[in-house]
């Protein structure tokens, strides 16, 4: 199956899509957004310095038609979401988003109802467009690099005026082995200081539920879940988080979940390996103290 | 200016996994129906934009007649009119075709807003397919919108931060949630007034579904293995937890 990946120049993101591509056949070709050599070895590699996905639809339609690609793989990220639908309409191609499973017989699975159910689809038409949920596929080892050729025919219908990088505090969520995450049960933004203090000792990243983000207590870039970051740490400490299925969708691949919640019936305990039914204001300071004593 | 907001009525998205049941591969009909979470953010954004630009705000939905009573909340929040395209397809291309029909019917829509993702199929693609069908610009995960003459200035939430983008002409934007667009709670008078508003019902079309067949839907098994730690002495609870995490090599 002739496959094209469209992704930013990021080894992990590309690696995950190469893994999916290999399920369906040979190593895919790639269009990478960014400059420099592309990580991995490809028969054909293209690049574009266009950062806005919406500006890539026209040249992508030409590339896919000329290259006779049968499958287009994107991540279920802002970029993938921006491209998949309009591209599907232009190519008359089926679009399946947030794919979490794939097999060679052109069967894919994707969650529905906030991850409470999983639907299986068979794709019977080429080309097809898939957006793949992050962290569900182990990134392929990308040996070597490929010097890409420029993608031609790019235009500008949407202008990028400026970009503001999120304030990065401590360890990025993506790479964290330990994540300390707070929900609406934290009660205020100031109370997140406790979580940051604990995270600093544990060498952990701080995350949040949508509940906490909606309250303005944590930046949207810290949201964990179906529509936030998908993470796969060794330990995920959920503090004052109810455990809605949409939140759990973001931690499906966490190895050990520890939940602190004062409601013994909270859904988070169904996903947790260890649970403490207590007000976090008693639990977190005790954990900080114990960690300090260990140091 | 005429702004349209797409809103979908879905089964209660906060039903816990343990209580979730399917009938014919879809959520059991006993769950309360409500407007999708992100759709409410889009309605709130639409109302704010309507107030700032003195625009007309039309709510458009594709679904069943029974959804009307739920959709009236969008009118109570500040929508001026409600158009329901009647149909029951779950195919994103069919839904988009039906929504396009409603937008074409209105004739003068400048901007379409939609929630980032529906709260049932969790696809986040219908609005972008609609944009493709309309031949309009599409941008996802928008948190702020400003109109300046012929231009739209928008802020887009990205994995690494925020992007400020600009385009001219008509567009479809998917709206993400921020503290500033937490949906307002309609006042009682608005709820009563919304009940009296006429609703434009439009007969749906069969449309052309995509060539991907849903073959099964399953509820994944979740085995609960939670070990609850005693809480009588919190200092001890903390040390027990840390040593257990180390013993099992998680830390
Ligand atoms: C399409 C869609 C996508 C979504 N995507 C996401 C997503 O990506 N991420 C996400 O998180 N949510 C997402 N949601 C929202 C999700 O459904 C929930 O609304 C949200 O996760 C709730 O956040 P929360 O657990 O912090 O708040 P709540 O549900 O309000 O829970 C707060 C918890 O804190 C506990 N608590 C209160 N006080 C204390 C205390 N002092 N000590 C200990 N515990 C305490 C309470 O018992 C309660 O369990 C999505 C929803 C939809 C429909």
Automatic annotation (TrEMBL), chain A:
<dbReference type="Pfam" id="PF00766">
    <property type="entry name" value="ETF_alpha"/>
</dbReference>
<dbReference type="Pfam" id="PF01012">
    <property type="entry name" value="ETF"/>
</dbReference>
<feature type="binding site">
    <location>
        <position position="184"/>
    </location>
    <ligand>
        <name>FAD</name>
    </ligand>
</feature>
<feature type="binding site">
    <location>
        <begin position="223"/>
        <end position="227"/>
    </location>
    <ligand>
        <name>FAD</name>
    </ligand>
</feature>
<keyword id="KW-0274">FAD</keyword>
<dbReference type="GO" id="GO:0009055">
    <property type="term" value="F:electron transfer activity"/>
</dbReference>
<dbReference type="InterPro" id="IPR029035">
    <property type="entry name" value="DHS-like_NAD/FAD-binding_dom"/>
</dbReference>
<dbReference type="InterPro" id="IPR014731">
    <property type="entry name" value="ETF_asu_C"/>
</dbReference>
<dbReference type="InterPro" id="IPR014730">
    <property type="entry name" value="ETF_a/b_N"/>
</dbReference>
<keyword id="KW-0813">Transport</keyword>
<feature type="binding site">
    <location>
        <begin position="209"/>
        <end position="210"/>
    </location>
    <ligand>
        <name>FAD</name>
    </ligand>
</feature>
<feature type="binding site">
    <location>
        <position position="261"/>
    </location>
    <ligand>
        <name>FAD</name>
    </ligand>
</feature>
<comment type="similarity">
    <text>Belongs to the ETF alpha-subunit/FixB family.</text>
</comment>
<dbReference type="GO" id="GO:0050660">
    <property type="term" value="F:flavin adenine dinucleotide binding"/>
</dbReference>
<dbReference type="InterPro" id="IPR014729">
    <property type="entry name" value="Rossmann-like_a/b/a_fold"/>
</dbReference>
<protein>
    <submittedName>
        <fullName>Electron transfer flavoprotein subunit beta</fullName>
    </submittedName>
</protein>
<dbReference type="InterPro" id="IPR001308">
    <property type="entry name" value="ETF_a/FixB"/>
</dbReference>
<feature type="domain" description="Electron transfer flavoprotein alpha/beta-subunit N-terminal">
    <location>
        <begin position="3"/>
        <end position="170"/>
    </location>
</feature>
<feature type="binding site">
    <location>
        <begin position="240"/>
        <end position="247"/>
    </location>
    <ligand>
        <name>FAD</name>
    </ligand>
</feature>
<keyword id="KW-0285">Flavoprotein</keyword>
<dbReference type="GO" id="GO:0033539">
    <property type="term" value="P:fatty acid beta-oxidation using acyl-CoA dehydrogenase"/>
</dbReference>
<keyword id="KW-0249">Electron transport</keyword>
UniProtKB/TrEMBL annotation, chain B:
<protein>
    <submittedName>
        <fullName>Electron transfer flavoprotein subunit beta</fullName>
    </submittedName>
</protein>
<dbReference type="Pfam" id="PF01012">
    <property type="entry name" value="ETF"/>
</dbReference>
<keyword id="KW-0249">Electron transport</keyword>
<dbReference type="GO" id="GO:0009055">
    <property type="term" value="F:electron transfer activity"/>
</dbReference>
<dbReference type="InterPro" id="IPR014729">
    <property type="entry name" value="Rossmann-like_a/b/a_fold"/>
</dbReference>
<dbReference type="InterPro" id="IPR012255">
    <property type="entry name" value="ETF_b"/>
</dbReference>
<dbReference type="InterPro" id="IPR014730">
    <property type="entry name" value="ETF_a/b_N"/>
</dbReference>
<keyword id="KW-0813">Transport</keyword>
<feature type="domain" description="Electron transfer flavoprotein alpha/beta-subunit N-terminal">
    <location>
        <begin position="23"/>
        <end position="209"/>
    </location>
</feature>
């Amino acid at each position: 199956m002739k496959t094209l990946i469209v992704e930013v120049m990021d080894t992990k993101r590309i690696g995950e899509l190469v893994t999916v591509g290999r399920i369906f056949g040979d190593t895919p070709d790639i269009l990478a957004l960014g400059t420099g050599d592309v990580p991995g070895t490809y028969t054909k590699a293209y690049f574009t310095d266009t950062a806005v996905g919406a500006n890539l639809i026209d040249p992508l339609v030409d590339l896919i038609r000329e290259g006779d690609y049968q499958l287009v793989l994107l991540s279920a990220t802002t970029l993938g979401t921006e491209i998949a639908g309009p591209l599907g309409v232009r190519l008359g191609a089926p679009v399946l988003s947030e794919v979490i499973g794939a097999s060679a017989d052109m069967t894919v699975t994707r969650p529905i109802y906030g991850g409470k159910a999983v639907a299986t689809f068979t794709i019977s038409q080429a080309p097809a467009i898939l957006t793949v949920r992050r962290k569900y596929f182990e990134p392929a080892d990308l040996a070597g690099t490929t010097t890409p050729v420029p993608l031609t025919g790019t235009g500008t219908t949407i202008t990028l005026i400026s970009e503001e990088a999120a304030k990065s505090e401590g360890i990025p969520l993506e790479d964290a082995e330990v994540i300390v995450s707070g929900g609406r049960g934290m009660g205020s933004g100031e109370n997140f200081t406790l979580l940051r203090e604990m995270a600093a000792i544990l060498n952990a990243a701080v995350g949040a539920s949508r509940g906490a983000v909606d309250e303005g207590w944590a930046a949207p870039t810290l949201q964990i879940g179906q529509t936030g970051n998908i993470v796969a740490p060794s330990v995920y400490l959920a503090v004052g988080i109810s455990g809605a299925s949409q939140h759990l969708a973001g931690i499906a691949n966490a190895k050990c979940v520890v939940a602190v919640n004062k409601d013994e019936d909270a859904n988070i305990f169904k996903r947790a390996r260890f649970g403490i039914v207590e007000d976090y204001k008693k639990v977190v300071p005790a954990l900080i103290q114990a960690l300090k004593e260990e140091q | 200016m005429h702004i349209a907001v797409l809103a979908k009525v879905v089964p209660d998205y906060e039903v816990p996994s343990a209580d979730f049941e399917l009938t014919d591969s879809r959520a059991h009909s006993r769950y309360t129906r409500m407007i999708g979470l992100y759709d409410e953010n889009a309605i709130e954004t639409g109302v704010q934009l309507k107030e700032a630009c003195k625009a007309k705000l039309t709510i458009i939905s594709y679904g069943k007649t029974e959804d009307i009573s739920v959709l009236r909340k969008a009118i109570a929040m500040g929508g001026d009119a409600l158009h329901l395209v009647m149909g029951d397809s779950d195919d994103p291309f069919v839904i988009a075709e039906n929504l396009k029909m409603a937008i074409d019917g209105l004739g003068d829509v400048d901007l379409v807003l939609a929630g980032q993702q529906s709260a049932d199929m969790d696809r986040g693609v219908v609005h972008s397919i609609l944009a493709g069908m309309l031949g309009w610009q599409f941008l996802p995960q928008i948190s702020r919108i400003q109109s300046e003459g012929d231009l739209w200035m928008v802020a887009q939430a990205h994995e690494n931060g925020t992007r400020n983008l600009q385009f001219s002409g008509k567009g479809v934007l998917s709206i993400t949630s921020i503290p500033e667009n937490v949906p307002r709670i309609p006042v009682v008078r608005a709820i009563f007034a919304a009940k009296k508003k006429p609703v434009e019902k439009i007969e749906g079309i069969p449309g052309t579904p995509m060539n991907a067949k849903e073959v099964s839907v399953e509820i994944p098994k979740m085995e609960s293995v939670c070990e609850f730690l005693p809480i009588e002495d919190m200092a001890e609870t903390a040390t027990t937890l840390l040593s257990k995490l180390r013993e099992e090599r998680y830390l």
